[in-house]
Description:
Elements: H1 3-19, H2 24-33, H3 39-54, H4 56-61, H5 71-84, H6 108-114, H7 127-130, H8 138-145, H9 149-155, E1 162-166, H10 173-182, E2 187-190, E3 193-199, H11 203-206, H12 210-213, E4 217-219, H13 222-229, E5 238-241, H14 248-256, E6 262-265, H15 274-283, E7 288-289, H16 292-295, E8 300-306, H17 319-324, H18 327-345, E9 348-358, H19 367-376, E10 380-388, E11 397-404
This protein binds S-adenosylmethionine.
Amino acid sequence: MRPSAQFRSAQEILETLVSSEMSLKVxxxxxxxxxxxxxxxxxxxxxxxxxxxxxxxxxLHRWSNKESKGDGRNLVLSFLYDHYHNDHLTDFNxxxxxxxxxxxxxxxxxxxxxxxxxxKREAIREDPVKYSYPDFLDKSLxxxxxxxxxxxMELFLKRASVFIRANKIKISTKDLTSKLKAEGFExxxxxxxxxALKVLNASNKLKLSKHFSEGLFEFQDLGSQQVVNNxxxxxxxxxxxxxxxxxxxxxxxxxxxxxxxxxxxxxLNSSRLKPFKIRAKRACAKIKFLxxxxxxxxxxxxxxxxxxxxxxxxxxxDPFTKWNLTLSEINKLTExxxxxxxxxxxxxxxxxxxxYITCSLLDEENGEVISRFLKNNNDxxxxxxxxxxxxxxxxxxFLSILKKNK
Length: 406
Ligand SMILES: C[S@@+](CC[C@H](N)C(=O)[O-])C[C@H]1O[C@@H](n2cnc3c(N)ncnc32)[C@H](O)[C@@H]1O
């Protein structure tokens, strides 16, 4: 596809996303309906769409109260202008054309709006516009992130890096690195996290590598790996992953302990465990899956609660969630988080631990839920709390470790 057609496609996808359904399904459906588009075109279109969603408010800001031919067009025009207009190597005109499937030529009004310097990011005063997030989260984000607010929000406008985790049940991180490098992948070790590797090129081809189907590694964000490194348990302990979902945390634990750990997995929505079971088989991870009947009456030395949350720590990777979030949704989530904690409290052995995890930046879902739980459960005390900042390279995570006294 020519650039003008790629940008026209991105415009149409964004139009649907902004005006009717903010969901990954829109991109998937576009792919199904436009099979002529090759994999490179799809990747390019996806990158444009994701960038525009991450930066939506800022990119649309210059168009307010001015001539508008729709949000989809405004988003891609702002994107193009910011990326290529001053790039002397690219002829700006290649992005436009007059055929039906081209991005339509710029009007004079559009050209004037785009070149207005006072509308550039540096000149914007309102943080929710500059850093593109909903107004209602302004106070909460500032309160939760403190002095790192601007740095984190700025980082969240850019694309996330791709990380994998060596599966120590099958291979060492060093040997995996050599194997992947021999296949042409550029791999960067992570000093603070021995099992994590950053993939610098061709990450889309990694899933096709035989090393992936052989279970030598898994895709897992750095922040998610870091949070698991802080789950301090010992060999021989029984551990329940209560919100197991796709199994990211359990698989990392099984790998870390080379299966020398008694690991159980449960999820309220048992269908969410299906991909986990496939991943566990591929990794040769020893995990016992429990249903409600099997869980009844059992107790464990540690329970991991990777709670359903706003996902605000993963906005770079999933910018759709940023625009779907509402205040009432956050309130609903905090009630669910609190009720899950109360539920698991009875599954913990004496002197046992609860590891409460979210991938949220917001204090409402993190420290506040823990404070409320501790206030009403005096048999528990706080051992340690940790925020894994996106400034460390991965998604943002919160971890609170609670100990049962009685
Ligand atoms: C953040 S996801 C878990 C991600 C997973 N641990 C991972 O690392 O891939 C939260 C999970 O909690 C589950 N869940 C929601 N409400 C629950 C409840 N009341 N009890 C148990 N699981 C619940 C959801 O089905 C979802 O799979």
